[in-house]
Design goal:
The protein has 6 helices and no strands. Helix 3 packs parallel to helix 5. 79% of the residues lie in helices and 0% in strands.
């Protein structure tokens, strides 16, 4: 292997690493561009840092991970039925309704967190807010599990092996309606 081909292979891996860094960084900023440029040149050293755990405001908020996981699962479910006879099973409108409900829970959790951070207040009030927060976090975890099951079932149904799709959609819809009324 010549030095030129070795350099080309190294830079190709660097391009892939830079693309991964850019895809992983949500807001495009100078920092993310600088991180991608660094990954391009010194990817064996930089990649573990650039693709490591996310730091910042959302890193301490488990509901954000659940919201992202639900959104990814719903997108996988939609992709599984796209251009098939199952496409009407989970429409874009249904998916958007699910994601709106999940975002609403996230906003409610943000409000609860703000209330808890603003002033402790009476112990009874704090206990009630913490109970509401825990219930919403548990609901998000349950929704995440249901959305992932739905994506799996729709993928199986696409290949003729899924049989629990309707039950999962009914359960997911019922859970979202219960959360909306609470």
């Amino acid at each position: 292997m010549t030095a030129g081909s070795l350099l080309a292979a190294y830079l190709s891996a660097g391009l892939i690493a830079a693309a991964l860094v850019l895809l992983r960084s949500e807001p495009r900023s100078w920092t993310s561009l600088g991180s991608a440029a660094t990954a391009l040149v010194v990817w064996p050293l930089w990649l573990p840092f650039a693709l490591g755990p996310v730091r910042g405001r959302d890193a301490e908020r488990p509901e954000r991970d659940a919201e992202r996981s639900i959104a990814l699962a719903i997108e996988r479910a939609r992709a599984a039925v796209r251009s098939t006879e199952l496409e009407g099973t989970l429409t874009a409108r249904d998916a958007e309704a699910i994601l709106r409900a999940v975002r609403r829970i996230g906003r409610r959790l943000d409000a609860i967190e703000a209330e808890l951070a603003a002033s402790p207040g009476p112990a009874r009030r704090v206990t009630r807010l913490q109970a509401l927060r825990n219930a919403d976090l548990a609901a998000l975890d349950e929704l995440k599990e249901l959305a992932e099951l739905l994506a799996t079932e729709l993928t199986l149904a696409r290949h003729g092996r899924g049989d629990g799709v309707e039950a999962l959609i009914v359960e997911l819809t019922a859970r979202l309606e219960a959360l909306h009324s609470s």
